[in-house]
Write a structure and sequence with these properties.
single chain; mainly alpha
Length: 195
């Protein structure tokens, strides 16, 4: 239990650092509820963490009814923790990076992926499109979770072109998403990730 709590806290902090320091300043939306929150933040200026939490509420209701109550509660705790760390802890500790967008997308993807992997190892998830992916896969069992997530994240990346006003937002978002996925697989599966 203490190991899971430690992984969850450390994962949330690392996830928050990757998002706040690199992803937010680069104006990229690498999928997920956080990606949607980043676009809403760009338009409204509202805090990304709180927006992510609000966007997850209907998704958590879906998880409660279509997946499992335990999964919904665990995800709600993780999502709340990540949102609070992102908005109220990380900005006090680490400055945002305002340099090259390519570096932002690479480092943001790697660091966010590392944080997510630790949370997955603790048996939890950050919610967002993960929930949609699981629900879509449950409704269409022949579709893999990866494909379901790719469809949802692809839509978010496409919308980001119009919100941020340039195609580079989606291209950099794809780089961040790819780096994030590779890091998650490498941390969880080790050397088998590349095969």
């Amino acid at each position: 239990m203490w190991k899971d709590i430690s992984l969850l806290l450390l994962g949330s902090f690392i996830y928050g650092v990757g998002t706040y320091v690199f992803v937010v300043p680069a104006n990229i939306a690498p999928g997920g509820a956080t990606g949607v929150a980043l676009m809403v933040n760009y338009v409204t200026g509202l805090p990304v963490g709180i927006l992510t939490l609000l966007l997850n509420v209907p998704l958590l209701a879906l998880a409660w009814f279509y997946l499992s109550k335990k999964f919904a509660v665990s995800t709600a705790v993780t999502t709340t923790l990540c949102s609070l760390v992102l908005d109220f802890v990380v900005p006090l500790v680490v400055p945002a990076y305002s340099g090259d967008r390519l570096l932002c997308s690479l480092y943001g993807g790697v660091i966010v992926g590392a944080g997510m992997a630790l949370m997955f190892m603790a048996g939890s998830t950050t919610g967002g499109t993960d929930i949609l992916g699981y629900v879509l896969q449950k409704k269409r069992p022949h579709m893999s979770i990866g494909r379901a997530l790719m469809i949802v994240d692809g839509i978010i990346l496409a919308v980001s072109i119009f919100v941020f006003g340039n195609i580079e937002a989606a291209l950099f978002g794809m780089i961040a998403l790819y780096a994030q996925t590779k890091v998650i697989d490498t941390i969880i599966y080790g050397g088998e990730a590349g095969s």
